[in-house]
Design goal:
The complex is a heterodimer of chains A (258) and B (223). In chain A, 35% of the residues lie in helices and 23% in strands. Chain A has 258 residues and is α/β, with parallel strands linked by helices. Chain A has an eight-stranded parallel β-barrel, surrounded by eight helices. In chain A, helix 3 links the parallel strand 4 and strand 5. Chain B is globular and about 50 Å long. By secondary structure, chain B is α/β, with parallel strands linked by helices. Classes of the chains: A alpha/beta (258), B alpha/beta (223). The interface between A and B is large, with 38 and 44 residues.
Chain lengths: 258, 223
């Protein structure tokens, strides 16, 4: 049985983890590689790095983060934030990333999805969608760019379908309404997008409890769940999350413990 | 001494394969050389050959052919020289007679069979098949003994490995399928024929299981 994946997300700024696991006896809690190793050894199915500064000045520091991590951490690594060109994608994949996540730049230049998947394969092109409820129409969500600041007016469902058509291998779906609230995923949005595309959907934004993770998979039909703060602040371990999902009848990978 | 060639033909994930092989070599006592190469002489002189591959079947075959005599060099090293060989993902798929991604393309033809798109029976089976899935023992092969020496068995447990693919290998002779996984249909997860191994899963991304798998391959001496 294909396992549902749990993906911790590390926010990186100037090559350092922001809001990292702060309760552990890590030698250096701001070191992305140490955090990634900790997560992979405790059962994370993949790890996502998000460059939250993502200016071109920081490209080099993020490349070095991925290069060091990939030499020590043997689970799939995704990198997002500020990837704008085929050349950017190439650089990250060459250095050891397995997938890149593209967000605003995919909306501004949708051909980047086509070119990226044609050259590197669709398995490494993740299209990240930041969606927010459309205030005038029920059960509609708009795509936002630039870290959720700019409403594009594009319907999120239609954009997800277009991204698949253009060659995206996965959708990383974040609800801007729920992100940071700890009130759970936007299940309506997750379910709607997941049933509209035939590629896997990773649910993100709003996780505050382990039950929320289960809801994203059972009710939202997500293939994977991504969370940051519930893991970083030590509220829950990956193993606790997996055990909870397992208790709800969800297939998860447990054999890393052996 | 182990002399490992990781074949470079422009495929993307060479670094991850190199990193994982390096870790396996660093952890053992005997000396080893690891080279990422497209040089015929280096490949001819190697003791172990790894062919990674991501992207489409067609683009990978073209990548090998565009590098001069690489296609023939690999064929020769695997078939007549009988060198231990590991093809990963599309590197495994290219062992087969033909692939149907982006139209029909001939592969190396070392294992008779086809590579076709996974045909999901239900909308819940998303394509690509991405993530961790269990490995089931289907047939026996001498390499399983080497895996067992490194603690990897498949009788009582079905360990998880990391997959990411949309196409799967259909050998004409089912006995070439050593391990399988289930995703809407039975998928060839590891194929083997004499000195030739292929994995649809990515050992270099399969954490402890994957590293033990690679370690087994590097210590394998097919006879």
């Amino acid at each position: 049985m294909l396992k549902k994946r749990i993906i911790p997300c590390l926010d990186v700024k100037d090559g350092r983890v922001v809001k990292g696991i702060n309760f552990l006896n890590l030698r250096d809690a701001g070191d992305p590689t140490e955090q990634a190793l900790f997560y992979s050894n405790s059962g994370a199915d993949e790890i996502t790095f998000l460059d939250i500064t993502a200016t071109s000045d920081n490209r080099e520091s993020m490349l070095s983060v991925i290069e060091t991590t990939a030499s020590k951490c043997f689970v799939p690594l995704t990198v997002g934030g500020g990837i704008r060109t085929v050349n950017d994608i190439d650089k990250f994949l060459r250095i050891g990333a397995d997938k890149v996540s593209i967000n605003s730049s995919a909306v501004l230049n949708p051909k980047l999805i086509n070119e990226g998947s044609r050259i590197f394969g669709n398995q490494c092109i993740v299209v990240a969608i930041d969606a927010k409820k459309n205030t005038s129409e029920k059960d509609k969500w708009n795509v936002y760019t630039h870290g959720g600041r700019k409403d594009t007016g594009i319907d999120a469902v239609i954009w997800a379908m277009e991204a698949e058509e253009r060659g995206a291998g996965e959708i990383l779906l974040t609800s801007m309404d729920k992100d940071g609230t700890k009130k759970g995923f936007d299940i309506g949005l997750t379910k709607k997008i997941s049933s509209s595309v035939s590629i896997p959907v990773i649910a993100s934004g709003g996780v505050g409890t382990l039950e929320h993770l289960a809801d994203g998979i059972i009710l939202g039909n997500a293939s994977a769940v991504l969370a940051a703060s519930i893991f970083h602040f030590g509220e829950f371990s990956i193993t606790e999350a997996k055990k909870h999902l397992y208790s709800k009848g969800i297939d998860v990978r447990m054999d890393y413990e052996q | 001494m182990t002399d490992i060639s990781i074949v470079d033909y422009g495929s993307g994930n060479l670094k991850s394969v190199y990193n994982s092989v390096k870790l396996c070599c660093d952890n053992k006592h005997s000396s080893s050389k690891i080279r990422v190469t497209s040089n015929k002489k280096t490949i001819d002189n190697s003791t172990h050959l790894i062919l990674p591959g991501v992207g489409s079947f067609k683009s990978c075959v073209n990548g090998l052919k565009n590098k001069g005599i690489l296609f023939e060099t690999i064929y020769d090293n695997i078939s007549s020289k009988g060198k231990p060989f590991l093809g990963i993902c599309v590197g495994m798929q290219m062992l087969f007679s033909e692939g149907y991604e982006d139209g029909k393309t001939n592969g190396l033809g070392l294992i008779p069979g086809k590579v076709t798109k996974i045909n999901p029976k239900h909308h819940n089976y998303k394509i690509p098949h991405i993530g961790w899935n269990n490995l089931f023992l289907k047939n026996t092969h001498p390499f399983l003994n080497t895996l067992e020496k490194n603690g990897l068995t498949f009788n009582k447990m079905q360990p998880n490995a990391y997959f990411v693919h949309s196409y799967s290998c259909k050998p004409e002779d089912k006995k070439h399928v050593i391990l399988s996984t289930d995703y809407s249909e039975e998928i060839s997860a590891m194929v083997a024929k004499e000195n030739i191994l292929g994995t649809q899963f990515h050992p270099e991304k399969s954490h402890t299981f994957g590293l033990n798998f690679l370690k087994s391959f590097l210590s394998w001496n097919p006879e």
